[in-house]
Amino acid sequence: MKNRNLLVLFATLLMAFTVDKPAYQFFSSDGKPLKYTEMMQAAASADVILFGELHNNPVCHWLQLELTRDIFEVAETNLVLGAEMFETDNQLLMSELMAGKIRMKDFENEAKLWPNYKTDYKPLLAFAVEKELNFVATNVPRRYAAMVNMKGFETLDSLSPAARAFLAPLPVPYDSGLKSYKDMQTLMGPEHTNPNLPKAQALKDATMAWSILQNLKPGQRFIHFNGTYHSDDFEGIVWYLNQWRPGLKIVTISSVSVPDPEVLPDTLQGKATFILALPERMTTSQ
Length: 286
Hints:
Elements: H1 2-18, E1 25-28, E2 33-34, H2 36-43, E3 48-53, H3 58-75, E4 79-87, H4 91-98, H5 104-110, H6 117-120, H7 122-131, E5 134-139, H8 142-151, H9 161-164, H10 179-188, H11 197-214, E6 221-227, H12 237-244, E7 250-258, E8 274-279
Parallel strand pairs: 3-6, 3-7, 4-5, 4-6, 7-8
Antiparallel strand pairs: 1-2, 1-8
Helix pairs in contact: 8-11, 10-11, 11-12
């Protein structure tokens, strides 16, 4: 009996130590599991790829770099990169860096950088420099989003022509009925409702979309890195791209945190062209 119990214990321990610990799993929009290569091959044929990330997830950032490398093998110099994490008033610095006119450390000393820049976004810039690719600072300067959050779109009319050059064209189209913007109000709760908050979000989405379009030439592919909320449910940036250039082939990736990355909850289906499921217990980068 004792030996039997030991065998059962050994078998249990063996099963515990042989269970896979997947770091991620891709799914199609309808919840079908996909291999990375299947997702990558489909994404490589798009005009615009919006990689919606969880900002502090290291697997997201690793996959962003891997996807960029793999699509470069297909597109080569017809690949353009861009990111929410860099603002349009830093584009001159970015362009000088990409052209080899200034050093990386000079760019880093003068640009507005996120706290996790060195670990999560610098590798993308370094790849673009190495391969001589265009990298676009797409996001609205945060001071203008703050203005809209306080006083609405109308306050932008007071800006100088030089300042307006950093924004999407005014007046910014806005649909308050989009799910993403309505959800922002719901999440805040009635006691903190600010009708201008979704407008500030829309200004970011619009400026990112406009920046993409201004730097996307025929035959090119554009990979854009943004928080997943900016492209989930095919809204945000996607809505503005479709307003200004209908007919683009757009692929979206939504990163989600779930208890088991091999099981996608039904409620997350339909959020994007591809859904990147990540384990909730994944350590974060900031």
